[in-house]
Structures are given as structure tokens and as C-alpha cells.
Automatic annotation (TrEMBL):
It comes from Cellulomonas chitinilytica. GO terms for molecular function: L-lactate dehydrogenase (NAD+) activity. The keyword Transferase does not apply. Its EC number is 1.1.1.27. Residues 164-327 form the Lactate/malate dehydrogenase C-terminal domain. The keyword Disulfide bond does not apply. This is L-lactate dehydrogenase. The modification Phosphotyrosine is found at residue 241.
Amino acid sequence: MTESRDSDDEQLTPSAPHRRRSKLAIVGAGAVGSTMAYAALMRGAARTVALYDINSAKVNAEVLDLGHGIQFMPMAEVVGSDDISVCADADVVMFTAGAKQKPGQTRMDLAEATISLVRKVLPSLVEVAPDAVYVMVTNPVDIVTYAALKLSGLPPTQLFGSGTVLDSSRLRYLIAQRTGVAVQNVHAYIAGEHGDSELPLWSSASIGAVPLLEWNGLGEHGPLTAQVRDEIAREVVESAYRIIEGKGATNYAVALAGSRIIEAILNDERRILPVSSLLDDFYGISDVCLSVPTIVGAQGVSDRLAVPMSVDELAGLRRSADALRAVAQRFGL
């Protein structure tokens, strides 16, 4: 006996599985923003990458150039506009727009112009993408992040800065060079300000499973003496200035560092990254944005790791916090 079909049968048919879509918005189509879009597309970090910039010709050209290479990347689409609505409903917003750092300038020299830009753009961004996780990338990132929190009214879990993710990568690269091991086997963090007062956390660093301070060398590579560690720390701080002096901007490594943060958010990885976020009684440090190892996932930032620190490291972190507070007060924040 054949059963009759009624008009409701179509509604009972299981629908095709919903493909999760993800949208990344990048504010600023300059060297950092456009390279970050490229890195995110190459890594397949998001299904949609949206570029926003007030320079219509520049943003349209970047989108066209990126779009021509889409067939060679994981499946995605790239869009762009000088209309902020292009960022609507983004899951992640990377804020890369800001005053360009010139040779001889410190990151702090950029603060006034960049904070003014954030004040102008951020409220409109939050209006079109209220549920996005916001990552401030533009320098001076710690002060800009603190200002953005004050100006946006967003909770401190939802907005944070890229912090010392790039600096920590530079540190690991230099340690790997000095020890002759793969950079992937070096575990070390830069903490504090993304700038001149930042400091390496040598006490918690390791190479493989060997505490870095107990590393005795390998083959032709000698131990990491106090002098060698000081040289490495100085090179981490000065490397950005050298790159800017030589080519005008840092863009490749910061774009890759940014794409790593994007993936941690969109994939809810709960990855430990030294991002800059508003601290609340972290080793007695409060009401300042600076970088410490932090859990990053779909909701933004959550727990900070109370990593072991020497007396000198803790004192250095507090000095970094004091320096950033002084700058924030100078700008009335």
C-alpha cells in the first residue's frame, strides 16, 4: 500500500547542514591592514574578509588585487569599501588604522593622532558590529586599547590589543638562532608594554622541556648567559625601529601575528597569547592595559596566567604599568 504525501512533507525533509560562516573586518587598508587581509585569506582564517578605509581608491585596489588571487587560496570572499557598513555583522574586527610611524619616532609619539582617529571611527563600528570581538593593532597599542575601552563602552573581555604577540615571536626567533633549535620548540613571552619598557619573562621560558635559565648549550651553540639574554632583549625592542628605518613599515610579521589571534577567536581555541587587555589585580596591577599570557577564545579574552616571575621581572612589569598609566593620564584617560 502506497502512502499518500501531503503538503507538509516538504517541511519534514531534513535541511542541508548549515555551513558556519565567519566574517573578519579589517579597519585600515594600509601596509598592515592589507597584509593582514592577505595573511588571513592565505591561512583560511575566515570565509569573508572585509576591508574598510576612508581612501576609496586604495581600498578598492587592494580588494581587487586580493580577489584576483582567491582561486589560489582556501575558499573565501573579499570585499571592501569606504562605507563602514562593509564591517556589518563581523565576528572579529582588527583595527589597524592609525598614524604612520616614521623613522626616529617612538610608538608613544603616535598616541594623540591615533586616539583621535579611534574616537571618530570606533562608535560607528560598534553600531554595525556590536557582537564582534575587537582587536586593536595600531600603535601605541596599549594606550590605544585603553582609550578604545573608554570610548566604546565595550566590556574588557570583548576588546583587547594585539600586545606583545609579535614581540614574543621576535624573542623566540632570536632564541632559536642563538641555540640552534627550531623556533617551534622555544617557549617564551614578552610581557608589559608593546614598546620600550617591555620585558622578557626569562623565569618561565623553556627550550623543549628544559628551563631556559638551565640551558647549557648545544653543539657549537653556547649557553644563554646574562649578557646574551640582554642582547636578545635589546634586539627585540630595537628590531621594529630597524625595519621601519629600512623599509618604512613593519607588515609581514605583524600580519601573521594578527592572523594567529583571529584564528584563536574564530576557532574558539582558548590559546595562550600575550595580548594587551585591561588588568584587574594581576600581581597587584590594575586599571591598565598591558600584555601578559592570556586565554583567547570566541568571547575574546578570559583568564590571565599567573606565570612565575622573578623579583626583577615583577618589578619591571610594574614599571611598565606605571609608564603606561602616566601616558594615559596625559591624554585625560
